[in-house]
Structure formats: structure tokens, C-alpha cells
Design brief:
Length: 151
């Protein structure tokens, strides 16, 4: 599975995620391109501020492979990771991140900060941004429009 195909899976996950949470989907691929784990935002479901899609997927992948080091994996996520998720990605030693939509308010991979590509970072990684960006952004725009209308 390539990054675009994985992003389509992440979008589908986000579309079917927990009803009252921001629709973000994440997929972790192994070096063969097989899906090892997936995640969606589960903050509202579990009342857990750390239950972002990326963290959920990283936890599942580590459990699946029996190691916290995901140093031969790729993380594909519909939204640019925040600082917490960028830190978790770095700690998991994930070498390649692919994301769809930019997060101009809290993004930590180029929008507001660039945690993962900071020259002081211990682990270097490749980042591919803007994969199916329009589709990913539309998910978020629709969600927040409905939230505003409900108030």
C-alpha cells in the first residue's frame, strides 16, 4: 500500500470515527506497506486528552509488533500532528510521516512549530505533507461547521 492508498484508509477511519470528536484518522504501515495499526481521535470516548489518532495508532502498533521502536514504519495521518503527537512520533522512532491537511493553529510539523525537523532533534525523519489535502481539510471543515451550527 502506498501513501495515497493509506491516506484513503485514514480518511475513511476519520469519517467513521467517534461522533463527538474531531475526525482524524491515522494508519501505520510496516516496511512492506502493510497496515499494522490504525487510530482515530478517542479523547471524548475515553475522556483522555492524550487519545489523539496518532497516539492511539502508535500504541496499537507497538503492542502488535511487541516493540516501542517503530523504526521501519510509516505513519499516515489526515491532519498535521500537534506538539504532543510529534513528540510521540519522534519517541517511537518513526522515520516517515505523511499527513494531509495543515493545522495552522496547533500544527507542529511546519505550521506553528516544526518539532520533527528541528535541527536539534535527535532523530531525523522524512515528512510528506499535503497528501489528499483537500479531502482531509473538508472533513475538518464540515465537522467544525456542524459544531458551530449546533451551538
Amino acid at each position: 500500500m502506498n501513501s495515497t492508498e493509506a491516506m484513503k484508509v485514514a480518511i475513511e477511519l476519520a469519517m467513521n470515527s467517534h461522533v463527538n470528536d474531531v475526525p482524524v484518522g491515522a494508519v501505520i504501515l510496516n516496511s512492506s506497506g502493510d497496515i499494522v495499526a490504525t487510530g482515530t481521535n478517542e479523547r471524548e470516548l475515553h475522556k483522555d486528552p492524550s487519545a489523539h489518532a496518532e497516539v492511539v495508532a502508535i500504541r496499537k502498533a507497538a503492542q502488535e509488533i511487541g516493540d516501542w521502536r517503530l523504526d521501519s514504519h510509516t505513519l499516515v495521518v489526515t491532519l498535521e500532528p500537534c506538539a504532543m503527537c510529534a513528540g510521540a512520533i519522534a519517541q517511537a522512532r518513526i522515520p516517515h510521516l505523511v499527513f494531509g491537511a495543515w493545522d495552522k493553529k496547533a500544527g507542529a510539523v511546519g505550521s506553528v512549530w516544526d518539532v520533527l525537523r528541528d535541527p536539534r532533534a535527535l532523530h531525523k525523519m522524512d515528512v510528506t505533507s499535503g497528501v489528499l489535502e483537500v479531502e482531509c481539510a473538508q472533513l475538518l471543515t464540515s465537522f467544525f461547521r456542524k459544531e458551530r451550527e449546533a451551538k
